[in-house]
Amino acid sequence: MGYRLLMINMGSTSTKLGVYEDTNFVWQETLSHPREVISQYLKFMDQYDYRMSAILDVLKEKGEELSTFAAFVSRGGTVQPVPGGTYRITEKMLEDSQSGKFGDHPCNIGGQIAYDLGEKYGKPAFTVDPPVCNEMWEEATYSGLPEIQRIASFQQLNHRAIAKKYCSEQGVNYDEQNLIVAHMGGGVSVAAHCQGKIRDVNNALAGDGPFALERSGGLPVGSLINLCYSNQYTQEEMLRRVNGRGGMVAYIGLVDGREIGKRIDAGDKEAEMATRAMAYQIAKEIGALSAAMKGQVDGIILTAGLAYWTYLVDLLKERIGFLAPVYVYPGENEIESLAFGVLRVLNGEEQEMNYDQEAAKEDHLGL
Ligand SMILES: Nc1ncnc2c1ncn2[C@@H]1O[C@H](COP(=O)(O)OP(=O)(O)O)[C@@H](O)[C@H]1O
Ligand SMILES: CCCC(=O)OP(=O)(O)O
């Protein structure tokens, strides 16, 4: 028997689970978490017990015996900027991901769960292409204040997987292409992939870039500072407001693209205007990156859950179609990318990355 792997992919609105045996897909399941449940928790890590028991219930239903897994694999977490690759989850990695310095996201719960299951069953826990990468152009790391550095904290795993899938389908080499990839899920990130490196991207977790289903994106700074000091919100509540309770949900109380689409079809003008505004901001971000790339854009790729939504995709195409050909890759390839990344290491085809060493080289802890 080959390597049986359990993959855990925690998104802001869902937990996706998958099992592979070697490169063979066994099953995948998506648990959509009701907004009423998720919004009870102020801190993401407070969802640990809720998400763990949801995972254990599914595994029980599927008749999975946890001791049969060769490794537990999770997307995430929000660690120090390090090169891409397959990393063993270490205590240092968990500590950094839960420090909040590099972004806060439910995938940090996934890393902790994978690690805890690994400890319990005596198996390693891994992650692949963590969300924080260190390939930004130097100019792109400037924020405008020396004490604030821009970092790339985003859906790196799916960005790379979809960009490489596109390249393989087009018969071109990822390392020779200049692409703009817009990942549009619970959060939105728009990145410049230039010859195999991600050179600029909005921080999808920290009030940067376009607004998304449940994130505020970039805000007018003066007004934001005033709101922070208005005594309306605690620091924790403000952080959750920009990442978790901002964007579409703050405007119209909805985070499900399908539901928003139905409201628009039923004539809801507020839902329509908020969607048009989100599309406007995503298009503007794509335009900004095309200037950063000096107009040398081979293709624009729209991906993740919202790329299924033709209404949104059409709004985007109307504004960005003149820049470069637009390709739509709905959904994401994260479970498979996690499995294949770990298999390359277990089969000895690729060297396992050492997070503690890479993080020490980068040393972004002073951020
Ligand atoms: N056919 C569709 N039309 C509109 N929105 C969709 C469709 N399919 C999925 N979505 C939306 O995509 C979002 C989830 O995207 P996903 O990439 O899975 O995000 P996350 O990993 O952050 O949960 C949800 O809001 C969901 O409603
Ligand atoms: C840490 C991953 C970045 C992210 O925002 O992912 P989701 O959009 O899946 O929530």
TrEMBL record:
GO terms for molecular function: butyrate kinase activity. It catalyses: butanoate + ATP = butanoyl phosphate + ADP. Keywords: ATP-binding, Cytoplasm, Kinase, Nucleotide-binding, Transferase. The keyword Nucleotide-binding applies. Its EC number is 2.7.2.7. It holds the Pfam family Acetate_kinase. The keyword Kinase applies. Its main location: cytoplasm. InterPro entries: Aliphatic_acid_kin_short-chain (IPR000890), Aliphatic_acid_kinase_CS (IPR023865), ATPase_NBD (IPR043129), Butyrate_kin (IPR011245). It is found in: Cytoplasm. PANTHER family: ACETATE KINASE, BUTYRATE KINASE 2-RELATED. Belongs to the acetokinase family. This is Probable butyrate kinase. It comes from Ohessyouella blattaphilus. The gene is buk.
